[in-house]
Write a structure and sequence with these properties.
Shape: globular
Distance between the termini: 21 Å
Order of helices and strands: EEEEHEEHEEHEEEEEHEEEEEEEEE
């Protein structure tokens, strides 16, 4: 098994709820990356013979054992997200658009489980236009926010943000997030806000417009303990009251601790940390009040 050191990421919209998961008095953290195999934000391994290496570095050697041989990078990113303010309205490309725009074969889909609901009880998700021409007309009138649909959401609910969906978490959201595929995010609108230097963040209007699919329609569902939520390429399960966990699947699993603690191979496990379990591995010496498990979905397994 591979115990990962979480990676904090400061953002313009981040708050202070994630500072409790890492040492020090740190505010402004928007993401705490519990599992990340992409450049720069990849997690350090804390145990075993690969100690000191990153997940990105070890993946080429481990992907066959993990039954992920078709991927060039670890395909799942897992994070806790604290939105003190609204995130930018954005969109991710699907596979075809990613190939066209970025020359990469995977787009990006993500899923959110709300550990705490947004203050106003809704998020941005979906598009009120029916065609690309309407989207372009809205851009010309600077009405990008008004064409993005509102979507009701409550604590302990789940929503899948398919590739092509205009979306944004809103103020007060505290979320367990799983991303599948690439790391491409195109900002469509950012409320004209500025950073500490008075500079507006870059928008990606052309790429965002090319990626938006007006026909996708997200919906919320309640999360049940020990019941797998299945998407086309991955699945997620919430576990509660764990003192032992076994990976009974044929692929690697990412067990992410929200509340609880444990000991493994000389490492203390606390909230905000993730462990990658190879098929058949067992995690013991734990007392986890709440955890989530994510894994890729292979229909041929």
């Amino acid at each position: 098994m591979y115990i990962l050191n979480p990676v904090p990421h400061k953002t313009i919209w981040g708050g202070n709820r994630l500072s409790g998961f890492i040492p020090g008095d740190i505010s402004g953290i928007g993401h705490l990356y519990m599992v990340n195999g992409h450049d720069e934000m990849s997690n350090e391994i804390l145990n075993g013979k690969w100690k000191g290496k990153t997940l990105k570095e070890i993946f080429p050697d481990k992907k066959y054992e993990w039954n992920m041989e078709e991927y060039s990078e670890f395909p799942l990113t897992v994070a806790l997200v604290d939105a003190k303010e609204n995130l930018s309205i954005q969109v991710h490309p699907d596979d075809i658009t990613a190939e066209c725009l970025e020359h990469q074969k995977l787009g990006k889909t993500e899923s959110w489980i709300f550990l705490d609901a947004p203050q106003r009880g809704w998020i941005y998700a979906g598009c009120q236009c029916n065609a690309k021409q309407e989207i372009e007309e809205a851009i010309s009138r600077k009405q990008m926010e008004t064409i993005t649909s509102h979507f009701k959401i409550e604590k302990d609910q789940y929503v899948c943000i398919e590739a092509g969906t205009l979306h944004a978490m809103t103020e007060g959201s505290f979320v367990y997030e799983v991303e599948y595929g690439s790391d491409f995010t195109y900002r469509f609108y950012d409320y004209d806000r500025t950073d500490e230097r008075g500079k507006k963040r870059e928008l990606h209007i052309q790429k965002a417009t090319a990626s938006i699919n007006p026909n996708v329609a997200p919906y919320a569902r309640n999360v049940k303990d020990k019941v797998w939520i299945q998407e086309e390429d991955y699945e997620i399960c919430r576990e509660t009251g764990l003192d032992r966990y076994c990976n009974d699947s044929e692929v690697a699993e990412c067990l992410s601790v929200i509340e609880g603690e444990g000991q493994c191979e000389g490492c203390k496990i606390t909230g905000g940390m993730s462990i990658i379990l190879s098929p058949g591995e067992v995690l013991e010496n734990i007392r986890l009040k709440t955890a989530f498990v994510a894994r890729i979905r292979k229909t041929d397994v």
